[in-house]
Amino acid sequence: MAETLEQPLAAATVRPETIEKVSIVVSKGSLEGIYPGLIMANGARMEGIEANVFFTFFGLDAIRRGRQAKIKVATVGNPGMHVPTWLGAIPGMSAIATKMMQRQMEKLDIPPIREFVELISDSGAGLYACKASVDMFKLTEQDFVDQVDGVMTVGEFYALAGGGEIIFT
Known about the structure:
By secondary structure, this protein is of the alpha/beta class. It has a domain at 21-69 and 112-168: DsrEFH-like (Hypothetical Protein Ychn, Chain: A). 41% of the residues lie in helices and 14% in strands. The protein has helices spanning 2-12, 31-46, 85-88, 93-107, 113-122, 131-136, 154-161; strands at 21-26, 50-55, 126-130, 150-152, 165-168. The protein has a 5-stranded parallel β-sheet. Helix 2 links the parallel strand 1 and strand 2. The chain is globular, with a radius of gyration of 19 Å. The relative contact order is 0.20. The mean pLDDT is 89.
């Protein structure tokens, strides 16, 4: 009896040798919340992997007209900053941290968000806005940059992601 239980479990855990498709969820609207998803989507496309990016909640700022250039580093309550919360709350700290991070990214030839979104779209990745978030924030498709392929529900996102890996950043 133990043999028959082990065989189906072993067969169910067989994975393909390579990843062929990824769907990346971007939910945070800070610089350090948006870039990981963009970097992963770009890396996937560079490796020939199909990639789709689903922007939800404040992650929508990455694809909203007029918001892309205003995205900052979150300094308050960000354990990665390694500074006390009160220090991150000092006026101007977020702007200083943002400038420092942008300089570091420029040195590494990482483009600004607007250019990165264009690059990823041009590479063939799909860019989608979450319908629930769009409705919640009372947005329309006209609020988004031209590279956005559409607004979709979570169910539609799951259908699009079928057969691939889902990455939540």
